[in-house]
Every structure is written in C-alpha cells, then in structure tokens.
C-alpha cells in the first residue's frame, strides 16, 4: 500500500460512467419489470453502492476509505443499453476514483448476472473516470 500519511486530507470526489449493451428484447424485459430475478436496476444500484464501500477488499493495495457519499444512477438508453453513473466522495488523504469505477463495474456485472438467461451476448463497455477533484493533482474532466 502506498504511504499517504503525509498527504493533506481534502474533499475528494470522483465520477465514473459505463454502460451495458444488450438485445432490445432484454432491455424491454428490464423496463417492464419482467426479469425473473427481480428489480434489475434497483438491485444493480445497491450492488454498486456496496461494491464501492468494499473496494479495498476487491482491488489489491487499495486503501480502505470511510466514504461520505456514494450514488449509483442507472438509466435506460434506448434501444439497447443501460447507462450507469457512480459518484464517490470522501474527506481524506487519497482519492476515490477506484471506488467510483468499482461501483459502475459491479452494477453492470449485476445486470449481466440477472439477465444472462435471456441474453448471454451483453457487453459491458466504456467504463471510465469522467470527473475527479480534490487532492494534490487537482481537477480532471474527461473530454
């Protein structure tokens, strides 16, 4: 683990986005609440939040953080995708990029798991950091 003990504690925020692309029929099942395993978007949201809180258990050498805020927003993007955005916030000595990225990835994997019986060809795409602020390196905004 990297030594962050000399870093100043600052408010740090990270936003990540990604998407899961699927057959239009699979998206229709999600939209209509007809997936046998339950509320796909609601469960994916909770899974993403839980994953952000456990990132240090999932990513080697990642610092455990006392997150002050995590949100995971999912939206249907017609005709064939669910867009996912996660925000992670902490007042601390290290950033929260990994927490936001983990939240998006686990939310997408949860959707895959819940819908795989209907569509094994789903693709998780474009998981990326889109915003980072706080800390020594300043603000990052994806183009």
TrEMBL record:
Catalysed reaction, written as an equation: (8S)-3',8-cyclo-7,8-dihydroguanosine 5'-triphosphate = cyclic pyranopterin phosphate + diphosphate
Residues covered by the Molybdopterin cofactor biosynthesis C (MoaC) domain: 1-135
Residues reported to bind substrate: 61-63, 98-99
Keywords: Lyase, Molybdenum cofactor biosynthesis
Pathway(s) this gene product operates in, as recorded in its UniProt entry: Cofactor biosynthesis; molybdopterin biosynthesis
GO molecular function: cyclic pyranopterin monophosphate synthase activity
Active-site residues, record numbering mapped to chain: 113
Pfam families: MoaC
Top-rank EC class of the record's enzyme: lyase
EC number(s) recorded for this UniProt protein: 4.6.1.17
Domain of life, per lineage: Bacteria
InterPro entries the record matches: MoaC (IPR023045), MoaC_bact/euk (IPR047594), MoaC_sf (IPR036522), MoCo_biosynth_MoaA/MoaC (IPR050105), Mopterin_CF_biosynth-C_dom (IPR002820)
Entry annotated with the keyword Lyase: yes
NCBIfam families: moaC, PRK09364.1
Self-association state and partner proteins as the record states: Homohexamer; trimer of dimers.
UniProt record similarity statement: Belongs to the MoaC family.
Function summary: Catalyzes the conversion of (8S)-3',8-cyclo-7,8-dihydroguanosine 5'-triphosphate to cyclic pyranopterin monophosphate (cPMP).
Protein name in the entry: Cyclic pyranopterin monophosphate synthase
Gene name of the encoded protein: moaC
